[in-house]
Every structure is written in C-alpha cells, then in structure tokens.
Amino acid sequence: MRSPKLILLLIPGTIFLLALAVFIAKLPKPTPNKTENPEVVVIPTNTPAPTPIGQTPLQAFVQSVSDLQVNDPQLTPPNFDRKISLPVAK
Amino acid sequence: MWVLLSLVLFFGSIGSVFAQSVGDLYSKSVQAGNDYRQKYSTYQVNKNQNIQYQTAATRIAALSATKDVLVSRNSWQIAYLTYLRSYLAQQTDIANYTQTVVYLDLETEINTLNSQQGTLNSGDTETDVNNNASAWEKRLSTSDRLADAAILQITSTKLADLQKQLQTFIDASASQDTTTLNLIKQKLQNSIDLRTAVDKNINSYKDYSFSRNNLLVQLTQSKQALFEASTLLSQLK
Description:
By secondary structure, chain A is mainly α.
C-alpha cells in the first residue's frame, strides 16, 4: 500500500520542481499593473529602449549603458506623511 | 486523503513561490500606497471635524482614523522594504558579503515593523496614539538609511555587470589603435574605481557620515565614464 501513496506524493513533487525551474528561468522584471483610478499614483516603469534592426551587439550595449538609471524611479521610497498626530483634547 | 494532501501541498508551494516575485511585490507596494492615501484622506477629514465640533463621536472617529492611517503607513513601508529586499536578491549575488548584510538587515527591519502593527492599532487617548506614532517615526531614519543602502547596492550591481560586459568587448576588439584602446581601458578602470568606492561605503549606512547623495554622485560619474568608454569602443575602427 505504500507505493501508491509514494507515487501520489512524488508526481506533484516532480511537477512542482519543474514548475519552479521554469519560474526561476522566466523570473520577470518588475512591471507594475496599470490602473484606471485617476487618483492612483503609479511610479514610472523602466522600459528598455527597443533595439533597432541591424544594431551591433556593441551598439546595443552602449544603449543599455545609456539607459541605466542611477536614480531608478521604481525604487523611490514611499512619500508618506512623516509626522502624524492628533491635537490632544483639553 | 493522500491525494488531497498532495494537491494542497502542491498548489500551496506554487502559490508561495509566485507570490514572492518582484513584480508582484512591486504591485503590492503600489497598492499599499494607494490604501495609505485613502486612509490619510479619511484621517484628515476626521481630525478636522473633531477640531471643529469636539464631540464624543468626532473624537472616537478621529482616534479610529488616526490608528488606521498609522497601520496603513506601516504596511506601506513593510511592502516597500519587502519589494526592495526581493529586488536586491534578484539583482545581486547572494554570496556577496555587502549584499548579504543589507539583505539580512532588511529582513530584520521588516520583522520589526510587522511586530508594530498591533501597537499602532491600539490606544484609547490622543496621547497614546501620538506616542505610538512618534515612536515609529523616530525609527524612520534607520529605515531610510537601510533603503538607501539597498538602492545603492542594486544600482552598483547593475553597473558592475555592465563593466564586465565592456571588458569582454574590449578583449574581443581587433583594433590596432592602441592609443584609443588604452584610453578606453583607463576610462573603464575609472568607472570601476568609482563603483567599488561606493561598494565599500554601503555597509556603513548606519553611520552619520553616510551620505546617499554623495554616493549617488559617484555612481553617476561611474556610469558616465563607462558610457564614454563604451562609446569610444563602438567608434573604434
């Protein structure tokens, strides 16, 4: 009776490991969801410049250096109120 | 029973892995910011109403709205630092000592902020709520410095990757123009020196001498030197 139980655990386990490997290989770059709400603040995303056809690897590399943002807007810290308080009741 | 257990484990594991993706965490951070703005707006309305009318009902509403916004602000900071930690892990090498220190410090900070959720949601008087808010705000400078260190680390790692790539292009160059090649190598070395100087300072983020802006200037100069070197190489005959 142990073999069927073992298989029942091994099959999902194998599928999971395969899915994990695929997931790690395709790990996405940060891409925030757009929203229709006009009040919602969406931090601008880093969209790599398109590589023109016929561009050499070195030219593409120069472009990627140019595109590098030292002050990446996607890493901007939260801009909340840093002093929240209530007037004390007398 | 076994089938059910296997399926729960399987889908649970998949879910937890996908929940940790950097893109998801970024979205959560943006969502936490939106939630904060809503709570902050309610807090301002209730606070002003209480100042104007000073009834028991407006006082309770103001206290409640303030606690809500304090919890929401904390949640936003947690979501942001969690996103930053994930981005740092994705971008950099886990074996890198500096990166590991910043990563672990981020983890500690996130845990500390998580443990404060209950406190921020408590307090029956204005004084209690203000004290809780004030204690949280006093810790912000530490949190800010840690976030700065993580951001610098991420940018520095991106630069390091590009510097390695340029070295590969230089090694593969068949140009006979040694004068220009030497100039390119000199600019690349300058770029590397500036970036490694920043790396050495990242771990001292707790010191008062730590200056995010100065280090950002150095990284900008490093990028500029790298850009000049790569442009020169691309124009080399």
